[in-house]
Amino acid sequence: MSMKPIRAAIAGALLVLSACTNTGQTAAPAAASASPPSTSTQTASTSTTAPATASNSPLQLNSGNFQPEGVTPGQPTGTLVGKKVEDLRADLTRLQASVADENKQLQELRAQSVTTASNYHNTVAAIQAKLQVGTTKGNPILVAQWNQAQAQLEAVNTDLGHMNSLANEVASNAALSSYLLEASRAAFGISGAVDEDHRQLSILEDETNRTTVLIDRLLTELTEDISRQTNYLGAERSNLNTLALAVNNGELYGESFAARNYAPAMAPPLPPGSGIATGRPLVVIRFDRDNPDYEQALFAAVSAALDRRPNAGFDLVAVAPSAGTAAQVSLNSSAARRSADKVLRSLTSMGLSPDRVSLSTMTSPNAQTNEVQLYVR
């Protein structure tokens, strides 16, 4: 398939990285983090819409407040139906007390999660600011800050666990409220009632119905919060892994590939270079000495490629010189494969899914040393 529309873009991202000390490299600026979408929710006791929880943190949760309105007291009538009404009223009172407690827990968990997430992002921002101006590899101050950020993110995860437990409790109350609503409606069919019994039953049915709706809304918002928090944690864990790589190398990269809204790679693996009309690699990393410094330039090149083609896949090729004896070629091929494995681990740490990358090995008469080539498909 012709790739002419993107040839100019890919050619601009072509990098040749050498381990030689006289080879210059220019780092591309780090990618900017995407702003989170805004949200809106409904309050529980009314049908009006309230804005999402205001916060400087990208973790945005709902803001509904689900406080029951209370149960109207009634007078005993001395009938069998009147006794049934009293029992149902007591059950509804206990149910509403339970809902009020669950609402209180939800508000506390929301506030705690957003505050912790905000502190986490402040810690990450401090690390990124230091990396932006330049620092040493594995700076112990940044390592300590990274550990702090990890602990803060784990605290958000703990809150998520509490939210899941709370959701189970709310689901149980939802089942109970449905039972009470059916029981109050069925009580109208019991014989021996007086007019006052039916008047109190009507009030009780209305209040039970409103409580049922309230619980349903509570469960809906809580489920949405759990989903948002789960997605947030997944993205930030990937970002934190990429940040660990940046701290280790003393260089600022950008947002993890996994945290971006890239489409999954849809094309099946193809032969190396076949996805580009010219067959030119996106990146060439020459391993002519131990531990060449390639990760920042690699991140910039892959980031640019994904910005242009969100569904792109990659072919990672270990290339060894074909000159020499069979034993030498075999030894070089093994070393080149280990280098390619190292580059793949780097890409994975940057958040690129392994299923986007195919790995292969080849020899070439043009190769002067072991190298790793990355192609876009």
Overview of the structural elements:
It is a single chain. This protein starts with a helix and ends with a strand. The protein contains six helices and seven strands. Strands 1-4-7-5-6 form a five-stranded mixed beta sheet, covered by helices on one side. The chain has a two-stranded antiparallel sheet with strand order 2-3. The protein has two domains: 143 residues, 60s Ribosomal Protein L30, Chain: A, CATH 3.30.1330; 210 residues, no CATH class. The protein is an alpha/beta fold and 377 residues long.
Properties at a glance:
377 residues; 60s Ribosomal Protein L30, Chain: A; 2 domains; two-stranded antiparallel ribbon
Short description:
This protein has 377 residues and is an alpha/beta fold.
Strand and helix layout:
Blueprint: H1 4-12, E1 15-17, E2 40-42, E3 49-51, H2 80-133, H3 140-186, H4 195-249, E4 283-286, H5 295-308, E5 314-321, H6 326-349, E6 357-364, E7 371-376
Parallel strand pairs: 1-4, 5-6
Antiparallel strand pairs: 2-3, 4-7, 5-7
Helix pairs in contact: 2-3, 2-4, 3-4
Average the pLDDT over all residues and give the rounded result. 81
Uncertain spans, ≥5 residues at pLDDT below 50? 1-56, 265-278
- The counted number of beta strands is 7
Main beta-sheet strand count, sense and barrel state: 5 strands, mixed
- Total number of helices: 6
Intertermini distance: 10 Å
Structural class: alpha/beta
In the sheet with the most strands, the strands line up as 1-4-7-5-6
Order of helices and strands: HEEEHHHEHEHEE
The amount of beta strand, in percent, is: 5-15%
Q: Specify the helix fraction band.
A: 40-55%
